[in-house]
Every structure is written in structure tokens, then in C-alpha cells.
Amino acid sequence: MQTSLKNSPDFSQIRAQFPILQQTENGQPLVYLDNGATAQKPLSVIEAMDTYYRTQNANVHRGVYGLSERATELYEGARETVRQFLNAQSTKEIIFVRGTTEAINLVAFSWARANLTRDDEIIVTEMEHHSNIVPWQLLRDQLGIKLSVLRMNHLGEICLEALKGMVSAKTKLLAVTQMSNALGTINPVKEMVRIAHSVGAKVLVDGAQATPHMAVDVHDLDCDFYALSGHKMYGPTGIGVLYAKQALLEAMPPYQAGGDMIYSVTFEKTEYNVLPYKFEAGTPHIAGAIGLAAAIRFIESIGLEHIAAHEADLLAYATAELKKIDGLRIIGEAKHKGGVVSFVIEGVHPHDMATLMDQEGIALRASHHCAMPVMQHFNVPATIRASFGVYNNHADIDRLVAAILEAKSMLL
Ligand code: PMP
After folding, report:
1. pLDDT at 7 over 90
2. At what angle do helices 286-302 and 66-86 cross, to 10 degrees?
3. How many A from CA of 102 to the centre of ligand 1?
4. Which residue, by CA, sits nearest to atom 6 of ligand 1?
5. Which end of the chain is more exposed for a tag (fewer CB within 10 A), N or C?
6. What percent of the chain has pLDDT over 70?
């Protein structure tokens, strides 16, 4: 029994829905533990996209013929699925983009450039992914704004009191990840929003890691912007979402220009389209949006409360088993953590370990996880990271532990 909730679904049945997990790597059954980088895709997502390309493909919002109308219905239906998933007020607040990175850049290039001036402040946390640091650095260099860093403690946690002490009338934006990809820390985003709003600052939440693992309600969080990536939540690559409050989007200038984002064009003047199309220039990733909607239906068919309980069990089991290994140090021990274990092993370079794991058919990540400041904080060049998804089980963790012990005996 791996979960404690009543009516827990059969997770071995769920695992069976992922064709890639039936294959071998280097002669061993694949153990996939790199879900923080991207998740595998269930049949329902693969089939939704396959059916679209086989029988429904046409451009959207344009054709007067049936096929195009049906493609448009599917694309706009996907938007409604995302709206419900996030509990946004309106589909006008759901902008399809390539992923979290593009969503954050959209806010940086459109909202921030229109609203921030020299000496205004943006606060990011020390555990942000590079995609929630570098866009703000570009603004700092171009507009002369101030970029401040909310530090974390030795466990990898944010201190709310420290945030309270930092914000001021100069603070215009707090950009924070809901869950750290490098450490697994889940941040108290709702309280952080309240603190930022108390000085009139807006809040952007990076939800790339959170949405596959926990229920998100943007209305309840009251965040101003929320970014997610389809590929981390069992959907396709190349599709993601920027949620933003409607009033902000109405006032923001377009980010990219081209077809679909206009209402009328003359050489003298262009009138922009209504929301959400104002921010979706060009032909969108129609199959991607359809695949993302299928991924949301997949997640909802299991229930995020069951997914969270399953992954909490995997995290507890992996943490306990890994801690038994001599010389292994876990990086990131926040009280509130999602299914990510980052660790280092004394005397072993993380990359050597990951290479040996690969030979055993175990896919995991050894790197700075696009969060170099986190590595600097813990004074390590890189960590080995096992990150869990719905299809992982105790047997995966047992294989990981056995492979680490064997690799250690070879390397040391
Ligand atoms: N933020 C976090 C916390 C992430 O983990 C990632 C992906 N590793 C991103 C942002 C960027 O997501 P994407 O590459 O899908 O744009």
C-alpha cells in the first residue's frame, strides 16, 4: 500500500498507460526518474494528438469550412479545460505560449516594460530556475531597475518574515516558483502574494513544477501571473500557459505581432484583437493545446490529491532509503517538499554517477538543474536529482539505491 487516501487508484494500472516505460535501456527495464525535466506521456495524450493530425487538422479561427471550425472548437475547448484546471475567471485570462519560459518572458517584455521604470524593484527568490532570473536581469540592464534576491535557509526554505522586511513601495514585482525543481521545496505562495500585495506589488508564480503534483487555484492564490509548461504535466512539449488577471492583460501591449492578434490592419494603424488572441500571434500549437487538455484530463482522472499522496509516499521512502547510504548528503530538506530528492555523494562526481546509472537503465539528472544560484548556496557544483511522477514506485527506488551502491563500490 503506497498511499493513505481512501479509494486510492491502482497506480500499477496508471503506469501501464505509458508506452515508453515498457522499453529497456541498456538491456534493463527503464526506470525514469527525471520528471523534473520532463514527464513521459500516457496513451491518452499521444492518441489525442494522433487523432487530431489524422482526422481533425486545419488552421484555427480562420476557415469557414467544417474542419477548421472543429479544429477551432478543440483548440478553444482546450483553453476552457485549462481555465477550469487553474480556476481562472475567464478564458480571456488563458494565453497559450510555448512553455513557462515564454510565459515569463511575455510578462517581462510586455507588462514590465510598460509599467516599470528606473529604480523600481523586482524580487526573486534564491531558488528560482534561470528562466525566472535572466528575463529580469535583462530588464535590470535595459531599464535600470533593481533586482533583489530573497535568500533561503540551509534547508532550502524561504522565510516569510524576511520577505516582509524586504518589500517596499519600490517593489513592483515578486517572481517566485511554487515548487523548486532543484530542491523540491514548496513555497508558501499564497502568503507571499499577500505580503507583496500589501505594498502594491504584483506577483508572478512559476508553476512549472507545481502543476503536475498539486491542485492549483489561481483565484484563491490571488497571484497576478501564473506560468506552466505542458510537458512537465504529461502533456506535449512546445505548449504552455500564461494565466494573468484580465485587467492586467487588457492594459498590456502585445508581446509578439502578426496574424490572429489583430482586429484590423492598415499601413497607418492596427487595431489589436480582443483577449486572449492579442497575445497569440501566428498559428498556434493547436495539437499541443489539444494534447495539454488530454494531459489535464489524465491528471484529473487520477485526482491531484491521490497524485500528491502517492508522490509524498515515494519521497518519504526514497529519502529514508538514500539516507542509509554512507557519504550521501541530501540537498534541500524543506519541511514542505514535493517529489524531488537532490543529493551529492562524498568523493563522487554527480556526472559520473548519472553515467553509471544510465548503464543500469536509470534515467536521472546530474547537473545544476538550471538553478546555479542554488548550487552556489549549497556550495556544490551539481547534484544528482531523482524526481518522481505518477508512474514511479518503490521498485524504481530500490533499483536506484542498489545501482548507487554498486556504482559507489566501482568509483571509490
Ligand atoms: N521553472 C522551473 C521551476 C522549471 O523547473 C522549469 C523547467 N525545468 C522552467 C521554469 C522552464 O520550463 P520550460 O523549459 O518548459 O519553459
Report:
1. no
2. 40
3. 10
4. 208
5. N
6. 99
Residue from 244, 232, 218 nearest 108 by CA: 244
Nearest atom within ligand 1 for CA of residue 370? 8
The pLDDT value recorded for residue 63 is: 79
- Say whether pTM exceeds 0.90: yes
- The CA distances from residue 317 to 231, 313, 324, 344, 394, in Å, are 26, 6, 11, 18, 7
Angle at 75 between CA 73 and CA 76, to 5 degrees: 65
- For residue 370, indicate whether it is catalytic: yes
Q: Which helix (H) or strand (E) holds 79?
A: helix 66-86
Which of 283-314 are b and which e, b meaning 16 or more Cβ less than 10 Å from the residue's Cβ?
ebbbbbbbbbbbbbebbeeeebebbbbbbbbb
Residue type at 55 in one-letter notation:
T
| Separation of alpha carbons 314 and 29, rounded Å | 19
Domains of the chain, start order: 11-41+303-411 (3.90.1150.10), 46-300 (3.40.640.10)
Residue 231 CA, closest ligand 1 atom number: 15
| Average model confidence (pLDDT) across the chain | 96
Cα 263–chain centre separation? 32
Q: What percent of the chain has pLDDT over 90?
A: 95
- What type of residue sits at position 249? L
**Which residue's CA is minimally distant from atom 4 of ligand 1?**
208
CA of residue 208 to ligand 1 center, whole Å: 5
- Give, for ligand 1, the residue of 38, 102, 105, 129 to mutate: max count of ligand atoms closer than 8 Å to Cβ: 129
If you measure from the C-alpha of residue 234 to the centroid of ligand 1, how many angstroms do you get, rounded to a whole number?
Answer: 14
Nearest-atom index, ligand 1, CA of 99: 16
Question: From CA 203, how far away is CA 182, in angstroms rounded?
Answer: 21
What are the pLDDT digits (tens) for 154-167? Answer: 999 999 999 999 99
Q: What is the CB < 6 Å shell around ligand 1? A: 99-101, 129, 131-132, 177, 181, 206, 208-209, 229, 370
Using one digit for the tens of pLDDT, what is the confidence trace for 158-201? 999 999 999 999 999 999 999 999 999 999 999 999 999 999 99
